[in-house]
């Protein structure tokens, strides 16, 4: 599908974008969950930001809070990607493709970037959903 930009949107160079983002305390990168190219763009932006800002951490809506120790183990290279997939119960708790998120996981692991589990645990959601 083709998405149209807002009439007020302006195209900027990647370098200019990275320089602008490099001075911010927090950056929120969204994506269309099923779009691999969106995830690849996020990974590329994060890779570029590594050269301009430290420390850097990546928060993940896709991973529930109870799995924070799993993310820590993955970044610390105590578990591999398959174990990350299994230990986060990915298929049951987040139905979007793990492979779409893998480039960000891999980049964070390679550079020691902290991954933060941001999603509410399913068990807690069940207590408040009608």
From TrEMBL:
Pfam family, one: Cofac_haem_bdg
UniProt domain Haem-binding uptake Tiki superfamily ChaN: residue ranges: 18-128
Organism: Calcidiscus leptoporus
Name of the protein in its database record: Haem-binding uptake Tiki superfamily ChaN domain-containing protein
Superkingdom of the organism of origin: Eukaryota
């Amino acid at each position: 599908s083709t998405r149209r930009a807002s009439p007020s949107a302006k195209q900027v160079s990647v370098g200019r974008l990275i320089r602008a983002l490099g001075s911010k305390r927090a950056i929120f990168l969204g994506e269309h969950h099923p779009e691999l190219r969106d995830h690849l763009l996020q990974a590329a932006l994060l890779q570029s930001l590594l050269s301009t800002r430290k420390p850097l951490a990546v928060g993940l809506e896709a991973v529930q809070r109870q799995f924070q120790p799993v993310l820590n183990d993955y970044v610390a290279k105590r578990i591999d990607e398959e174990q990350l997939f299994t230990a986060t119960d990915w298929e049951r708790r987040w139905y979007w493709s793990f492979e779409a998120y893998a480039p960000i996981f891999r980049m964070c692991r390679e550079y020691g970037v902290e991954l933060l589990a941001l999603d509410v645990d399913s068990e807690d959601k069940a207590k408040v959903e009608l």
